[in-house]
Specification:
The chain is mainly alpha-helical. Helix content is 37%, strand content 9%. It has a three-stranded parallel sheet with strand order 1-2-3.
Length: 113
């Protein structure tokens, strides 16, 4: 059932720039986790059914796995992932500064003529 819900949400999102973070702990969360793709994240609670299923079938998941075991850890990991998703990658300059040579700065003294 939850797998179908994930599929509907993915279909309505309809954009390649959309990323999903799925948080779960039970067996019922495994099927939805399998519906996630590259660029998505699944956050299973450590040592619970979902975590154990993921560990026994790691190759079936396309999403990145970020386990947690406390509310504090869940919050910290979730905020880090949200920040990663909404912060655009640093723009890389096309200009290679490693080959630049800094000339001596011009004198700021006022010369007398």
């Amino acid at each position: 059932m939850q797998g179908k819900i994930i599929e509907r949400i993915q279909a309505t999102a309809g954009t390649k720039n959309q990323h999903f973070i799925y948080i779960g702990d039970g067996k019922g969360d495994y099927c939805p986790s399998l519906k996630l793709g590259e660029g998505d994240y699944v956050m299973p609670k450590e040592n619970y059914s979902l975590w154990k299923l993921i560990c026994s079938n790691k190759q079936l998941l396309k999403a990145e796995v970020h386990p947690w075991n406390s509310g504090e850890e869940l919050e910290k990991t979730l905020l880090k992932l949200v920040d990663k998703i909404i912060t655009p990658p640093a723009q890389v300059s096309q200009f290679d500064c490693s080959k630049c040579e800094m000339s001596k700065p011009a004198s700021t003294e006022v010369g007398h003529h």
